[in-house]
């Protein structure tokens, strides 16, 4: 049986007249990499700060291993936080920055030395002990911040968009590095980001948030392949989203065409949202497709072409390895398992 290390019960938070969190409840398992994902203002950072103790909820509880920690100050909570601005001490070298927390606790020097060396090895910075902070790259500074947080052996590490200041190549490297560190240590990471690819790359569980509410919670595969509503489908990766009618079980109509699908349990003739991922649309001869349209643009993306195809009812975004000339007519085929049906939800 999996153990929940943190449980949030009915948390609400309002700043002036702005409701940032609206009766939020969630459970976070021990040793998992969980990501809070959503647009700016959705409440993800406020959730993190409430867990850390830097913000106080208007109501609700934060439980840690079943005990309410809602009134505990940050320094008494078994969590550490790494922010986008690393807040390293510029007057201290790498060793002194990492050792700072242990020195405050009056840890014996030999133990500090041993733990600092262990942390430097963990974050691939062995030999950097005497380096000045300003001499380090952004990625190296981030590793120092992570080592400084981890040396205190928190049960949970909170990360508030820690990769935001890095360039694209370094961000991708650090995504893999963070996941490696989390798996090696086996502690719980709670990560905040608005970057969908980042969330999909690193997470065991993703929580998609919008307007202070959870829109969907699940594995990266579930979130991407089976979005629960149009907001999630649109926010996670690229999607073609359009109105449709669920005629009956396994039959859906959109673009004035009836398609087979794999969904059931809807009302007869229920109005629904249809989601089709760009990579799930097949380009065929114009006479063979269930739909047909005119190629309006094509861009080479390295592993595929991205096309805009204008069909009578919609402009489709399509990712395909086949090249098609601009202004040529093509057919579009969509297999039943690639049509995702969702109930309409007011946002």
UniProtKB/TrEMBL annotation:
Broad enzyme group: translocase
GO cellular component, one term: ATP-binding cassette (ABC) transporter complex
Keyword set, alphabetical order: ATP-binding, Cell membrane, Membrane, Nucleotide-binding, Translocase, Transport
Its EC number(s): 7.6.2.11
Reactions catalysed according to its record: ATP + H2O + polyamine-[polyamine-binding protein]Side 1 = ADP + phosphate + polyamineSide 2 + [polyamine-binding protein]Side 1
InterPro entries noted in UniProt: AAA+_ATPase, ABC_SmlMolc_Importer, ABC_transporter-like_ATP-bd, ABC_transporter-like_CS, Mo/tungstate-bd_C_term_dom, P-loop_NTPase, PotA-like, PotA_ATP-bd
A molecular function (GO) term: ABC-type putrescine transporter activity
Source organism superkingdom: Bacteria
Positions of the ABC transporter domain: 6-236
Database matches in Pfam families: ABC_tran, TOBE_2
Subunit structure: The complex is composed of two ATP-binding proteins (PotA), two transmembrane proteins (PotB and PotC) and a solute-binding protein (PotD).
Role, per record: Part of the ABC transporter complex PotABCD involved in spermidine/putrescine import. Responsible for energy coupling to the transport system.
Protein name stated in the entry: Spermidine/putrescine import ATP-binding protein PotA
Organism the protein comes from: Clostridium sartagoforme
Gene that produces this protein: potA
């Amino acid at each position: 049986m999996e153990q929940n290390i943190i449980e949030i019960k009915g948390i609400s938070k309002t700043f002036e007249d702005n409701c940032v969190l609206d009766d939020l409840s969630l459970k976070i398992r021990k040793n998992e990499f969980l990501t809070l994902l959503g647009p700016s203002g959705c409440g993800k950072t406020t959730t993190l700060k409430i867990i850390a103790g830097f913000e106080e909820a208007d109501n609700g509880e934060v439980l840690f291993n079943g005990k309410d920690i809602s009134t505990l100050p940050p320094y008494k909570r078994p969590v550490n936080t790494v922010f986008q601005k690393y807040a390293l001490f510029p007057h201290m070298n790498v060793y002194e920055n990492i050792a700072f927390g242990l020195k405050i606790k009056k840890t014996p020097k030999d133990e500090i030395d041993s733990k600092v060396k262990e942390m430097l090895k963990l974050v691939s910075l062995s030999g950097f002990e005497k380096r000045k902070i300003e001499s380090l790259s952004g990625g190296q500074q981030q590793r120092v911040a992570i080592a400084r947080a981890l040396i205190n052996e928190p049960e949970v590490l909170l990360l508030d968009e820690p990769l935001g200041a890095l360039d694209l190549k370094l961000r991708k490297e650090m995504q893999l590095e963070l996941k490696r560190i989390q798996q090696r240590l086996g502690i719980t990471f709670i990560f905040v980001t608005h970057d969908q690819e980042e969330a999909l790359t690193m997470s065991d569980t993703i929580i998609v948030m919008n307007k202070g509410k959870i829109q969907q919670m699940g594995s990266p595969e579930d979130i991407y392949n089976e979005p629960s509503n149009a907001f999630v489908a649109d926010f996670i990766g690229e999607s073609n989203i359009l109105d449709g009618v669920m005629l009956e079980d396994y039959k859906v109509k959109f673009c004035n065409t009836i398609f087979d699908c794999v969904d059931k349990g809807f009302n007869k003739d229920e109005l629904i949202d249809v989601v089709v991922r760009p990579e799930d649309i097949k380009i065929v001869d114009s006479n063979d497709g269930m739909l047909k349209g005119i190629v309006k643009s094509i861009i080479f993306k390295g592993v595929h072409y991205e096309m805009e195809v204008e069909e009578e009812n919609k402009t489709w975004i399509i990712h395909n390895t086949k090249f098609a000339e601009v202004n040529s007519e093509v057919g579009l085929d969509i297999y039943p398992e690639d049509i995702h049906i969702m109930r309409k939800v007011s946002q």
